[in-house]
Design a protein that fits this description.
274 residues; alpha/beta; six-stranded mixed sheet; 10 helices; globular
Length: 274
Amino acid sequence: MTTQTPPVIELKQVTTRFGDHVVHAGIDLEVRRGEIFALIGGSGSGKSTLLREMILPQQPNEGSIRVLGAELSTLSDEQILALRQRWGVMFQHGGLFGALTVLENVGLPLREHTALGDSLIDDIAGWKLAMTGLQRAVGAQYPSELSGGMLKRASLARALALDPEVLFLDEPTAGLDPDSAGGVDDLVRTLRDLFGLTIVMITHDLDLLWQVADRVAVLADGKVQGVGSMAELACMEQPSIRKFFDGPRARAAQQQAQQSGAAAPPKTGEHHRN
């Protein structure tokens, strides 16, 4: 008998309220080691709140969140600091410090959490930039000098600075042109495959979901409405799920994924779209 690998992230009966407004009403989720897991949902569905709860700036009113085996609500400040060094976060708007060069931004986590010398930190930061497809020369620039796609990659390089086990991505392709977004798609998949990362992302990008997500959880009305691959979700009938698959844009993303081999078409007897 084989023992199932414990989930990297486990949420049990997570409930979050802002005054009388219930954002999460008993959410259960598991993220498996080495998978690319996406959270989707309409505005106000609680995606960003759930992400903040996973990375500790916010705590739910009730329920349990375990990340890398640690129950977040019971950790001391020292344990929180140690756990945060095991994950990386790429924020939606980059989150880079404008007064620092790109190389200094990428090296900042190493300066904060290690005793490495400046020269070695700069070398590591340059390597992280190269991992995300940026030239070493970009490190001398400031965030304001970068294009949107370059800024996303620089933010991702900083998230990778401490060789994390888990990577959290908040809208990694938001605001990018199609070519730049496609480059991020490829990069996310490559990083997972090369380094065995577990990746959790929030995104509205249907192409990204079809191309790279192993499983997707749909949030609506305070609950998880469905979890599965995009091909599996495409066969579900709940209105909160169907809106991600009906309409010209959604069908185009699915057709492109099928042509590239990223998703299999529904089997005979499954839900078909007009």
